[in-house]
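Lab notebook page, bench 4
Experiment: in silico fold of construct C2
Operator: M.H.
Input chain length: 154 residues
Purpose: comparison with the prior construct
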Amino acid sequence: MSKNVETMRRFVEAQNDHDSAAVVACFAPDFRRKSAETNWEEMGAGNYADMSDRYWAAFPDTHFEVEHLLEDGDFVFLQYMETGTWTGVWEMPGGISIPPQNTPYESRGIITCTMDENGLIRRYCYHHEGGFVKAYPILSQMTVRTMNKDADKS
């Protein structure tokens, strides 16, 4: 198994364990993530860990099931099914708290990554099919902020 595939398997395992330190250990020092829900703003490892910890507190049963994991040189494609239930308060930066909806969701997601020479995730782009937003209409009525402007400074 290549270093890149091994890292992605550790990444998924850490996500399923809700272990932000183990997730961040899969990232290169110059890691950056982009996605639609953060308006394609880049976030670093500190912000990713902060966002993940707040998310897992609200969705304690979130789970990734790998559907496809493909590699081409330093490029990795991961398709997965994500499931969970919103049972906790979702705390957002800026003092926003969104109450639990107590209903499950299912969403197919795609993560594309470029890896560094050590097999660590350097660039990460995330896209999902929208099943998450469909399950929770309240999100279209809220200003959801996942970015914590201070998290990447430490």
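Observations: Residues 3-17 form the longest helix (15 residues). The helical segments are 3-17, 20-24, 45-58, 131-135.
Next step: discuss at group meeting.
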